[in-house]
């Protein structure tokens, strides 16, 4: 099938592009390269079934592109992804994540698209009282980013009601793996990996007992690939492991994978940080046949190996 991936030059998007091409699909990418890069698409470029369109999703030309490309499925990952940036500039966050999603949905209609698969975030759950968070848990957005992701989810439902365009929302926990940038605030695996391989100091905030649910990028991409079919239409599914890992445990695991000393510095807890998070993947297993297959130690080993290869290539 023909699939359009917005944000396809980014961390998750580019891994998805590789998977879709390997599955035999034709793949178009729309990305303004604001945080993604062509380097992430090195494996795809040159493949006659692949095309990159360097374009903002808010560019009015997007609808024409979709009308020409006629994607059967649109995987919508392009977004402003930083909670902190959303707090500093909520209007820009809404423009990219809400207006941007409306633009992608309108373009999908022009392109005769059957289904849109959307990347939402566990941020929509706010401060959950039950962990792992069940698939039908109430949403409670507590940042402009969470509000914009939830608004985008509502737009998917509205477009289905209005135009009959199907959708699946995938609610992603903390995704990690090759191509994640250490520049962002959320990619703690990438941040630890980069620092530990370069002999730079690392910091664990608070008492190190804060937990997150780390899910490997290949598993997340498998969820997207499954959602591109008929399964899961009109539904939203958590993509996480249900397992909580503390910040301190994560540091030990990354240090082990990197062959580095497990001696993080400490700093006061950051205001507003969630004490705990993990999500229940059972509904995704039932609806999509999805389950996380990569345990954390294996995923971290692959991530560290990739980071070492990348830094060797840069030095070489
Ligand atoms: N990484 C995670 O742990 C995580 C967790 C929950 C949700 N998500 C969601 O998954 C999606 C992908 O995240 P990621 O971690 O790969 O981030 P990323 O920054 O690597 O990828 C986002 C991509 O979107 C592109 N982009 C941004 N604004 C654009 C615009 N206006 N027009 C066109 N392209 C634009 C960027 O250049 C980049 O390539 C996002 O929607 C994010 O909110 C990620």
Description:
The protein has 316 residues and is an alpha/beta fold. The chain has 2 domains: 2-175 and 214-241, Rossmann fold (3-Layer(aba) Sandwich), CATH 3.40.50; 179-211 and 244-277 and 294-315, UDP-galactose 4-epimerase, domain 1 (Alpha-Beta Complex). Helix content is 41%, strand content 17%. It is built from 10 helices and 13 strands. Strands 3-2-1-4-5-6-11 form a 7-stranded parallel beta sheet, with helices on both faces. Residues 7, 9-13, 30-36, 56-58, 77-79, 81, 96, 100, 119, 121, 172, 174-175, 186 line the site of nicotinamide-adenine-dinucleotide. Residues 3-240 form the NAD-dependent epimerase/dehydratase domain. Pfam families: Epimerase. InterPro entries: Epimerase_deHydtase, Lipid_A_modif_metabolic_enz, NAD(P)-bd_dom_sf.
| First-to-last CA distance | 39 Å
CATH architectural type of the largest domain: 3-Layer(aba) Sandwich
**Main structural class:** alpha/beta
What small molecules does the structure contain?
A: nicotinamide-adenine-dinucleotide
Task: Give the integer mean of the pLDDT values.
Answer: 96
CATH class of the largest domain equals Alpha Beta
CATH topology of the largest domain, what is it called?
Answer: Rossmann fold
- Secondary-structure element order, N to C: EHEEHEHHEHEEHEEEHEEHEHH
Protein name: UDP-glucose 4-epimerase
InterPro entries: Epimerase_deHydtase (IPR001509), Lipid_A_modif_metabolic_enz (IPR050177), NAD(P)-bd_dom_sf (IPR036291)
Domain NAD-dependent epimerase/dehydratase: 3-240
Organism: Planomonospora sphaerica
């Amino acid at each position: 099938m023909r699939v359009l991936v917005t944000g396809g030059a980014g961390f998750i998007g580019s891994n998805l592009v590789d998977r879709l091409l390997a599955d035999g699909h034709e793949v178009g990418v729309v990305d303004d390269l604001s945080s993604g890069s062509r380097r992430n698409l090195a494996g795809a470029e040159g493949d006659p079934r692949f095309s990159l369109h360097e374009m903002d999703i808010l560019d009015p030309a997007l609808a024409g592109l979709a009308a020409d490309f006629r994607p059967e499925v649109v995987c919508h990952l392009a977004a402003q992804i930083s909670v902190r940036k959303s707090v500093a500039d909520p209007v820009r966050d809404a423009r990219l994540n809400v207006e941007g999603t409306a633009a992608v949905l309108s373009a999908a209609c022009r392109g005769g698209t059957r289904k849109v698969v959307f990347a939402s975030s566990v941020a929509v759950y706010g401060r959950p009282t039950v962990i792992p968070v069940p698939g039908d848990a109430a949403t409670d957005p507590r940042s402009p980013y969470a509000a914009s992701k939830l608004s985008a989810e509502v737009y998917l439902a509205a477009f289905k009601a209005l135009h009959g365009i199907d959708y699946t929302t995938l609610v992603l926990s903390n995704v990690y793996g090759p191509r994640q940038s250490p520049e962002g605030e959320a990619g703690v695996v990438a941040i630890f990996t980069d620092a530990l391989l370069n002999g730079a100091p690392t910091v664990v905030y608070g008492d190190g007992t804060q937990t997150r649910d780390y899910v490997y990028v290949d598993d997340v991409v498998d969820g997207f690939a499954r959602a591109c079919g008929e399964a899961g239409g009109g539904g939203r599914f958590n993509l996480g492991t249900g397992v909580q890992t503390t910040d301190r445990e994560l540091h030990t695991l990354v240090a082990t994978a990197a062959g580095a000393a497990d001696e993080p510095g400490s700093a006061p807890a950051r205001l507003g940080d969630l004490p705990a998070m993990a999500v229940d993947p059972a509904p995704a297993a039932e609806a999509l046949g999805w389950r996380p297959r990569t345990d954390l130690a294996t995923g971290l080993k692959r991530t560290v190996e990739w980071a070492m290869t990348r830094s060797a290539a840069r030095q070489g």
